[in-house]
């Protein structure tokens, strides 16, 4: 079964995915069973399996929906950026909105830690998201006329991912401002 497209959900599937999103993020993917997701969404386990096929597919749909929301949040300031530097920094600017209320850091990194199987469909969604972001950095650097051999895109990715890790481990630290400032300095050099 292919990963269910979150944009093509029935009302019951939407309730399932919404409940799963909260539970998976707050409690962890492996800690949450389909019984709890079904209960919280007000459906039977049979309905959950009819809509998603398996917990693996539900996890993948949850991550795919997060990925789509994240990309949309980054792409708007990226398109609207007034100059090449602002375009490169767009993923940092999106973090403030994205992380509002986030208590456990990056759902993608958390999922990657919980999904060690290379063939898990959720793991594939996470890896694709990370690859997309580093490619976005590389493309924006190239389009902006920055000397780019891959190292600068990787450095920006490391700064960006550091913010996501610190959000869960060092609350109260303004990691977004620190990383954005460091990224801007890298672009000056």
UniProtKB/TrEMBL annotation:
Molecular-function GO term, any one: DNA binding
Alphabetical UniProt keywords: DNA-binding, Transcription, Transcription regulation
DNA-binding region, residues: 33-52
Family matches, as PANTHER family: HTH-TYPE TRANSCRIPTIONAL REGULATOR YJDC, TRANSCRIPTIONAL REGULATORY PROTEIN
InterPro entries: Homeodomain-like_sf, HTH_TetR, Tet_transcr_reg_TetR-rel_C_sf
Protein name, UniProt field: Bacterial regulatory protein, tetR family
Domain HTH tetR-type: 10-70
């Amino acid at each position: 079964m292919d990963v269910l497209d979150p944009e093509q959900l029935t009302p019951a599937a939407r309730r399932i995915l919404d409940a799963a999103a909260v539970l998976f993020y707050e409690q962890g993917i492996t800690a949450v069973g389909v019984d709890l997701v079904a209960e919280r969404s007000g459906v039977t386990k049979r309905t959950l399996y009819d809509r998603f096929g398996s917990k693996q597919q539900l996890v993948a749909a949850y991550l795919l929906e997060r990925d789509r929301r994240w990309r949309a949040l980054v792409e708007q300031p990226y398109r609207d950026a007034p100059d090449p530097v602002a375009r490169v920094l767009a993923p940092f600017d999106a973090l403030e909105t994205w992380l509002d209320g986030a208590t456990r850091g990056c759902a993608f990194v958390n999922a990657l830690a919980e999904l060690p199987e290379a063939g898990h469909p959720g793991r594939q969604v996470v890896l694709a998201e990370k690859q997309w972001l580093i490619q976005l950095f590389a493309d924006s650097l190239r389009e902006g006329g920055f000397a780019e051999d891959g190292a600068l895109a990787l450095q920006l990715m490391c700064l960006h991912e550091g913010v996501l890790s610190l959000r869960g481990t060092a609350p109260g630290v303004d990691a977004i401002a620190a990383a954005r400032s460091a990224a801007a300095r890298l672009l000056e050099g």
